[in-house]
């Protein structure tokens, strides 16, 4: 098929079978990992309940016998003993450490944006009852749904989109315009969709954070998430500008910045996994 200029028309979404395959494989791997994580995450609670149920019949008779063995006390003749609690030095030490290290793991520069009473906090809380009803209060699902979704988006769309970006770079340097045009039609659409999904998924992450009783933007994971989405938006603008100006310098900058963003997002994913396993 030819366009109005007489050149071979290139399908806009040619080559999109590969990301579908990558997405399916990534989803299968991630779901297997998360299934194991969910089992590990819920096992301590189940084990605790089981232990309490097993030990309760054995403990109860001993406790009753101990109560009956107590001597009869005449409370009217006894003067109650006043016990003065000794001061605990740990809170003071923790406060001193917090003053010495203001940006500790529990405080970030963005924490004030999601504080109680802020518009963002109220907006996120509005969705909690709806999501809770949709997920049926499943703790494991609530805890791991966000990382599973975002992991698939990052590995499938981000990974293949990065490959297309380098393919465009290679084709341009080798002088193969058809390959450059094919990849160039898919790369911005794929990375743009990934940015939109990250923005929506980030809101889901904030929702699950409040759902589990943790303050918003209180972790390095949230800070790197905001930085990643902001840089993705700036990267999209840079991609438009470099095409308009046809600047090789801007194309090189776009490649370098895009690679740095992907590294940042991988770090972001690692911090999120660490946060999920520790909470």
UniProtKB/TrEMBL annotation:
Keyword Magnesium listed: no
Any Pfam family matching the protein: DUF4079
Gene Ontology CC terms, in alphabetical order: membrane
Transmembrane spans: 20-43, 148-168, 189-211, 223-241, 253-273
Alphabetical list of Gene3D superfamilies matching this protein: 1.20.120.1770
Keywords recorded for this protein, A-Z: Membrane, Transmembrane, Transmembrane helix
Name of the protein in question: Uncharacterized protein
């Amino acid at each position: 098929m030819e366009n109005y200029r007489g050149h071979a028309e290139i399908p806009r979404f040619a080559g999109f079978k590969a990301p579908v395959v990558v997405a399916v494989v990534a989803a299968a791997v991630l779901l297997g990992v998360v299934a194991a994580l969910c089992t590990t995450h819920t096992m301590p609670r189940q084990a605790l309940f089981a232990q309490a149920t097993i030990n309760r019949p054995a403990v109860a008779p001993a406790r009753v016998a101990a109560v009956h063995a107590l001597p009869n006390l005449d409370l009217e003749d006894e003067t109650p003993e006043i016990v003065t609690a000794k001061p605990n030095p740990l809170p003071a030490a923790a406060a001193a450490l917090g003053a010495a290290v203001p940006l500790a793991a529990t405080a970030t520069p963005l924490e004030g944006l999601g504080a109680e009473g802020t518009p963002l906090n109220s907006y996120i809380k509005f969705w909690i009852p709806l999501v809770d009803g949709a997920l049926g209060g499943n703790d494991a699902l609530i805890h791991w749904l966000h990382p599973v979704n975002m992991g698939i988006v990052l590995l499938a769309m981000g990974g293949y989109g990065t490959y297309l970006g380098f393919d465009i770079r290679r084709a341009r340097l080798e002088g193969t315009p058809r390959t450059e045009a094919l990849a160039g039609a898919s790369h911005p659409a794929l990375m743009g969709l990934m940015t939109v999904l990250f923005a929506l998924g980030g809101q889901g992450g904030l929702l699950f954070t409040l759902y589990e009783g943790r303050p918003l933007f209180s972790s390095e994971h949230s800070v790197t998430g905001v930085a990643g989405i902001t840089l993705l938006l700036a990267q999209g603008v840079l991609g438009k500008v470099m095409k308009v100006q046809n600047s090789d310098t801007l194309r090189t900058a776009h490649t370098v910045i895009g690679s740095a963003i992907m590294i940042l997002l991988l770090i972001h994913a690692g911090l999120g996994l660490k946060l999920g396993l520790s909470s």
